[in-house]
Design the sequence.
RNA sequence: GGGCCCGUAGCUCAGUCGGUAGAGCGCCGGCUUUGCAAGCCGGAGGUCCCGGGUUCGAAUCCCGGCGGGUCCA
């Protein structure tokens, strides 16, 4: 922590009202209070909750929210709609964890104007960090909560308000809107850090509960140190759930937030009601447990609570544990409703993984409760509940949410089924489960140690789970920090030049133009004042072409752009600095790439329309002939869906829609089009280039595009395949490559059709028949070969010579037979005291095998015998006692047989 | 983005040291049984994921790819 962040937070407004600064003897933190005799900071666990059972007003959660927002509106703030809980506009975060996340990094740094200033918002936030505490803290911790906020962004040009006004606004809200007597408000001092910003803060405490955080963001992280920011940001966060709980004074926070859902879920799960007074007592005591903050095991804490309250431990475990689990389910299912409605696709990577984590955690809790109920049913209840409490948009996605959850639940049950078997197998073979086994079961199969121990117990084994299990796991993942992207070493040289004027943006069909050479780096990196060459970017490869000038010309292989400076890497001699040159872009390749790029946007939109709004671009690669578009989706695409996507895409082409490209500030673009513009990833610039297919699709994109969709030509999607859990790759072609490939394929089809003498539309049936026939013929052939082998071997056995009591038969076969099949057949026909030597002609050498009957295998030891003999003849071989195999040079056959006979005599 | 595990009959999976690819369930036929459940005998069914390498010989060892699972950030 930077020293400059410490020090008293002095607010004139509070001083004037008689607030004095004190230090809490328990937690050691500073706070402001009206009561000169007060000793502690008043926040649990320094002091217990005192609001339980003392309702201030019985306002519903949506009323509390509305009161706040309209109060702030009356005080000059503009109300802003909530952002998605998935932070699409951030590349450093998966989930929206605070209201300020909506405005980082460009608005807080002053590069982009805010959507309004000052503004007020109630932002649903998700934090999975404290997921273990959800339930045991009776409502203080939640994975999903609403952060109500008023933000002011102060710059030199426009100063809105700062510390004094912020505290005044809070104070007025708390006393007048909430009706809290001001002597009950304590302001605790603190320091807030997050998202690369920091600043001092005040945390208002009422009756033991922290209900808001008033942050004065004035520092930013630069090279690991905090330095003052040009802009000063008022970052407040009012806990809607906590405030509602405080006002209602209900036994737990869940009662205040989830209302009738609490009873609903409890009766669904068969969880018995707990007396309010008893529950309040429990909540109050648990608020005092500092250890809960430090992540000590919940079990040992229950023992502590039992000691302090005199409630028997059994009663706690009997009454409170099922209640805590129900609370966790209430919270998790709400979080899932928002995550999935906002487009999260469960998977094993990124935010999808977080979604799956929460889904599986909830399913485990339901198992623990012994409840057989589908997760989708519970989440549907949340959707119903919250769509009537200010989030009607949740309802739009209900079908998809249900579908996704049912699929996930099935997968999880399948996982447990397989896991059960796996644990049993380990127990069967090893009679125990080792620590390493636990790690493998967890990491490779997703089975928690608790599950393994449970299954083992059912099988009558005891498995000890090490206390530090997750430390063991963590240690294995203690890998190197991600390395920053490596910039080529010539970037410094490039930075000496001013940005190149990109002519390809003004007119994407302009393929030749003149320019002036302003520099040459590394001998063949040409920098021009302006260029028609498109540099690499947005999954679109760079242009190629020629630069020519009076006295020479050079082939442009590759074009790159760094911070606006474009460098053309040429093959051969570069033009001298100052030369006037003429640029010519390879027309066909540029057109192909442009068509493929625009086709990517068209197909993405078609996929969204067919599959749903959760479809998001995961990645894309544009080629000359074939391009790829990876999209998020939670189940395989059916052939029918794929055809509809293809049809919609081609319709969009034929409607010949106008494609507009223009620049907007991020705020303006987000306001106008939403976050769906960030399909190709987050663009790290304050201004965005927008590519709009009028009335069809809008994205932020830096590529070159056709000006009407008709220019794309035919779009053909070749196939869709799952490349990863939750991600599907579409491979397609557009324009002439698509047409040519389709013509080629049809020609091929015609050839097959005429060679089989079957009409094209009957080909697949006909081929299936042919395959069936082939199979029959093969098995007939094998049968015949078997007969032939049998007679071959039988006659060899009849003609066998006897060598020291062993019948030695000799079978010679052509390379039509595999050695294995001859050996197998011979083994079936073998009589007692018999050895068969099999010789297979394989061109330049013979494969040989010696097979003996069971009764003499110990005497002959075929494997070692063959090894000795083949080796002595310049070949190689080996095997077991019954069967030896090897190879010898062609000319050594007679010698081999002689040696074999001789050795048999010796044995 | 990084790590680990897996890919063998229709299904679930064994396969040791590199040396004749197996089991259970399912399927087909026969027998037994009043019938059913079942039992007994026999049979069909394999691109050992794909490609390359090492080797006399690869399901097995090595390299690359594809597919699936899972954990972490």
Sequence:
């Amino acid at each position: 922590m930077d020293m400059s962040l410490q020090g008293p937070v002095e607010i004139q407004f509070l001083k004037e009202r008689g607030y004095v600064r004190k230090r809490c003897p328990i937690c050691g933190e500073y706070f402001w209070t009206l009561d000169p005799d007060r000793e502690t900071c008043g926040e649990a666990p320094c002091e217990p909750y005192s609001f339980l059972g003392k309702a201030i007003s019985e306002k519903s959660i949506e009323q509390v929210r509305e009161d706040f927002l309209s109060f702030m509106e009356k005080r000059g703030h503009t109300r802003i709609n909530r952002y998605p809980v998935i932070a699409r506009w951030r590349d450093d975060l998966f989930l929206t964890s605070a209201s300020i996340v909506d405005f980082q990094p460009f608005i807080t740094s002053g590069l982009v104007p805010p959507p309004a200033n000052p503004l007020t918002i109630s932002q649903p936030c998700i934090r999975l960090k404290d997921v273990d505490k959800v339930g045991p803290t009776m409502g203080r911790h939640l994975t999903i909560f609403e952060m109500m906020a008023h933000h002011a962004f102060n710059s030199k040009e426009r100063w809105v308000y700062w510390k004094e006004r912020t505290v005044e606004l809070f104070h007025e809200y708390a006393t007048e809107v909430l009706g809290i007597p001001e002597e009950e408000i304590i302001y605790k001092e603190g320091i807030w850090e997050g998202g690369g910003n920091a600043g001092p803060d005040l945390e208002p405490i009422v009756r033991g509960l922290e209900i808001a955080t008033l942050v004065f963001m004035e520092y930013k992280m630069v090279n690991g140190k905090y330095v003052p920011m040009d802009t000063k940001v008022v970052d407040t966060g009012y806990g809607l759930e906590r405030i509602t709980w405080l006002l209602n004074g209900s036994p737990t926070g869940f009662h205040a937030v989830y209302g009738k859902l609490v009873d609903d879920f409890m009766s669904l799960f068969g969880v018995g009601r707990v007396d309010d007074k008893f529950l309040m007592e429990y909540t109050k005591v648990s608020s005092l447990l500092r250890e809960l903050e430090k992540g000590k095991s919940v079990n040992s804490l229950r023992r502590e609570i039992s000691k302090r309250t005199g409630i028997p431990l059994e009663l706690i475990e009997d009454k409170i544990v099922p209640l805590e689990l129900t609370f966790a389910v209430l919270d998790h299912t709400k979080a899932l409703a928002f995550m999935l409605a906002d487009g999260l696709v469960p998977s094993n990577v990124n935010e999808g993984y977080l979604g799956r984590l929460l889904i599986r955690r909830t399913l485990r809790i339901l198992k623990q409760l012994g409840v057989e109920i589908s997760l989708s049913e519970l989440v549907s209840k949340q959707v119903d509940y919250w769509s009537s409490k200010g989030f009607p948009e949740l309802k739009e996605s209900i079908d998809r949410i249900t579908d996704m959850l049912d699929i996930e639940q099935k997968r999880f049950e399948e996982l447990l089924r397989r896991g059960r078997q796996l644990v049993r197998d380990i127990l069967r073979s090893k009679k125990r489960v080792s620590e390493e086994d636990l790690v493998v079961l967890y990491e490779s199969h997703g089975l928690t140690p608790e599950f393994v121990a449970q299954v083992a117990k059912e099988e009558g084994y005891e498995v000890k789970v090490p206390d530090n299990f997750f430390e063991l796991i963590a240690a294995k993942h203690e890998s190197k920090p991600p390395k920053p992207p490596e910039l080529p070493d010539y970037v410094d040289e490039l930075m000496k030049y001013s940005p190149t004027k990109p002519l390809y943006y003004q007119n994407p069909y302009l393929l030749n133009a003149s320019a002036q050479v302003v520099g040459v780096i590394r001998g063949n990196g040409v920098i021009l004042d302006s260029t028609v060459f498109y540099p690499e970017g947005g999954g679109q490869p760079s242009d190629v072409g020629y630069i020519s000038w009076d006295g020479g010309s050079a082939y442009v292989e590759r074009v790159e752009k760094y911070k606006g400076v474009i460098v053309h890497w040429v093959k051969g001699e570069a033009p001298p600095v100052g030369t006037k040159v003429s640029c010519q872009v390879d027309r066909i390749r540029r057109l192909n790439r442009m068509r493929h790029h625009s086709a990517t946007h068209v197909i993405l939109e078609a996929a969204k329309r067919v599959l749903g709004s959760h479809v998001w671009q995961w990645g894309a690669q544009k080629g000359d002939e074939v391009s790829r578009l990876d999209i998020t989706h939670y189940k395989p695409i059916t052939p029918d869906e794929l055809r509809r996507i293809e049809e919609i895409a081609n319709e969009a082409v034929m409607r010949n829609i106008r494609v507009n490209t223009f620049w907007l500030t991020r705020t303006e673009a987000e306001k106008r089009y939403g976050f769906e513009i960030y399909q190709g990833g987050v663009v790290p610039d304050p201004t965005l280039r927008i590519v709009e297919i009028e009335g069809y699709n809008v994205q932020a994109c830096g590529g070159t595009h056709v000006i009407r969709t008709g220019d794309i030509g035919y779009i053909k999607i070749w196939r869709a395949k799952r490349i990863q859990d939750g991600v599907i790759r579409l491979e397609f072609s557009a324009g002439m490559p698509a047409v040519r490939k389709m013509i080629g394929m049809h020609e091929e089809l015609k050839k097959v059709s005429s060679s089989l003498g079957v009409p094209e539309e009957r080909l697949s049936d006909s081929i299936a028949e042919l395959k069936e026939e082939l199979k029959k013929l093969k098995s007939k052939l094998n049968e015949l070969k078997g007969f032939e082998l049998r007679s071959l071997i039988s006659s060899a056995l009849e003609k066998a010579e006897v060598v020291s009591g062993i019948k030695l038969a000799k079978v010679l076969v052509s390379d039509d037979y595999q050695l294995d099949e001859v050996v197998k057949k011979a083994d079936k026909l073998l009589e007692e005291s018999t050895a068969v030597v099999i010789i297979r002609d394989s061109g330049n050498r013979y494969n040989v095998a010696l097979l003996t009957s069971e009764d003499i295998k110990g005497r002959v030891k075929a494997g070692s015998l063959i090894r000795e003999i083949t080796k002595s003849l310049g070949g190689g071989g080996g095997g077991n006692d019954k069967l030896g195999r090897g190879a010898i040079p062609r000319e050594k056959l007679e010698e081999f047989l002689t040696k074999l006979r001789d050795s048999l005599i010796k044995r």
Summary: The radius of gyration of chain A is 38 Å.
